[in-house]
Amino acid sequence: MSMLPYLRAAVRPSLRKSNPAQPGYDATRDPSASTAVVDCAVYRDGRRVPGPVCLTPREAIRRVREDGGFVWIGLHEPTGQEFAGIAATFGLHPLAVEDAVHAHQRPKLERYDDTLFTVFKTIHYVEHAELTATSEVVETGEVMCFTGPDFVITVRHGGQGSLKGLRHRLQDDPDLLSKGPSSVLHSIADHVVDGYIAVAAAVQDDIDEVESEVFAAPAKGAVRGGDAGRIYQLKREVMEFKRAVSPLLRPMELLSERPMRLVDPDIQKYFRDVADHLARVHEQVVGFDELLNSILQANLAQATVAQNEDMRKITSWAAIIAVPTMICGVYGMNFDHMPELQWKYGYPMVMASIVGICFTIHRTLRRHGWL
Questions:
Q1: How many Å apart are CA 93 and CA 153, to the nearest integer?
Q2: Over the range 89-114, which residues count as b (16 or more CB within 10 Å of their CB) and which as e?
Q3: pLDDT, tens digit (0-9, with 9 covering 90-100), for 219-267
Q4: What is the DSSP string of 321-365?
Q5: CB neighbours (10 Å) of residue 237?
Q6: Interior angle at CA 340, CA 335 and CA 345, nearest 5
Q7: DSSP code per residue over 120-159
Q8: What confidence tens digit (pLDDT) does each residue in 189-206 have?
Q9: Could you give the C-alpha distances from 271 to 62, 275, 360, in angstroms and in order?
Q10: Strand partners, 75
Q11: Phi-psi region for residue 103, left (φ > 0), alpha (ψ -120 to 50) or beta?
Q12: Can you say how many angstroms the Cα of residue 35 is from the centroid of all Cα atoms in its chain?
């Protein structure tokens, strides 16, 4: 029977309500708590084994190795000291442990003996009433996933990217969870990539808005080139988005194409779907970057054209003003023998000449679009 319906139900929002009888799961670490573990549960045959709301990692792995199944431990921003005991219990490699504790890692997939270490960058779209030159558009977090033959350990950094809903949806699908730890890894990957798709759609709206404003007719008195700061800020945010998406392409390609002992063959087939969605998001993000480059260049070109138009107008008026300045300068030289100075109609003639010449120049410049 195809697993696609179960996978889709696990990684996408569901209208079904979670079972109130299920043990609770906190999205983030309680500041008053003495441990970074927010949930620790044993799953056997696709179902959460009844017991305390949050087992200790040592007790959980003991149950698994005695009775089968796997354990899923969720942590939020653990310190090195808090993570040391878990790392020793599950035999995690020190290099992977260091990466998980200190965060700020690029997306990657690494194998240490019988453990896969996967890093995902989560992206959250920051709602804003108006895009400005200082607006934060995307906020990033991290989810690290240790996947072993009988355990999954997720380490989350940042205030967003909660796995609470994902865990509950997985617990509603025992057929999926029965495939073991690799089903959790796939669901996390698909959950993260689905988040990319939603953020890409929101960023597209911001880019469309900026593009329409750049190419719209300017309001009276508006200064061209004023959108450059907003465009550049949006470009910086898109680059942050790109740094989360691009490095993940290779790990998803490996998980979807290379046989791995820790990944169930039935689950591996569906990593191809995740890789395909990720590739499409990557194409979108690259397109955003190129489009913003074009918009920024167009905006700067418009500013340059506006400056040239202003310079032409200034030059035109300077040419017009030069006529009376020159004529008045000639008649201000105070020579004794200037016939027009004693002529009855000398003053009206000079004024008429100034007005006529200025009018002719103004009309000529206006006909050629300089005024």
A1: 13
A2: bbebbeebbebbbeeebebebebbee
A3: 655 555 557 888 888 898 899 999 999 999 999 999 988 888 888 888 8
A4: HHHHHHHHHHTTS--S--GGGS-TTHHHHHHHHHHHHHHHHHHHH
A5: 22
A6: 150
A7: EEEEEE---SS--TT---EEEEEEEEEE-SSEEEEEEESS
A8: 999 999 999 999 999 998
A9: 30, 6, 76
A10: 37, 155
A11: left
A12: 31
What strand order describes the sheet that includes 37-44? 47-48, 37-44, 70-76, 151-157, 138-147, 115-125, 108-112
Two structure tokens written together for 204: 């597209």
Residue 52: the pLDDT is 66
The structure tokens listed for 268 are 């591996």
Task: Give CA 279 to chain center in angstroms.
Answer: 16
What's the rounded Cα separation, in Å, for the pair 133 and 288? 18
- Condensed to tens digits (0 to 9), the pLDDT of residues 128-180 reads 877 777 778 888 899 999 999 999 999 999 877 688 889 889 888 888 888 98
Q: Compute and round to an integer the Cα radius of gyration of the chain.
A: 34
User: Cβ–Cβ contacts within 10 Å for residue 260, how many?
Assistant: 16
